[in-house]
């Protein structure tokens, strides 16, 4: 997926699941993180360590606390900067974690080993194709309809 597609799909998913713009926004910012940290050597390192889900699950486990789930944006600052930063980065890395299955539907990603890419999900489209556009549009429309029924 392109960065724009990652951002749109992650924001829509997180907003429908949490009904919280702060959580969805933090996740959207994190949704491109696995590609951004590859830097200028992205062709050599693409979809290896930066796309290994274990790293993101580990970071999220370190940041986890039960109050992370109840984010109330306007009152978030009352908890202090440390709590605010921890909450932001938890959801940021949740967005980075969502990046991996989003990439898995358009190619292989690492699963058991960070340097061995495996086809985990069926390939639905090619990156930067009309299929990607239709997938993102259809996915968002489906989320909208599900949100109306829930």
Identify the notable features of this structure and list them briefly.
mainly alpha, 2 strands, two-stranded antiparallel ribbon, 59% helix, 150 residues, 7 helices
Number of strands: 2
Instruction: Please identify the structural class as seen in this structure.
Output: mainly alpha
Share in β-strands: under 5%
End-to-end gap:
28 Å
Q: What is the mean pLDDT?
A: 89
The major β-sheet equals:
2 strands, antiparallel
Q: Can you list the strand order of the major beta sheet?
A: 1-2
What is the global morphology?
globular
Helix content: 55-70%
Oligomer: single chain
**Parts with pLDDT < 50 across at least 5 consecutive residues:** none
Total separate domains: 1
- How many alpha or pi helices? 7
| Helix-strand topology string | HHHHHHEEH
Backbone CA Rg = 16 Å
Detailed description of the structure:
This protein is mainly alpha-helical and 150 residues long. It has one domain. It is built from seven helices and two strands. It has a two-stranded antiparallel sheet with strand order 1-2. The radius of gyration is 16 Å and the shape is globular. The relative contact order is 0.17.
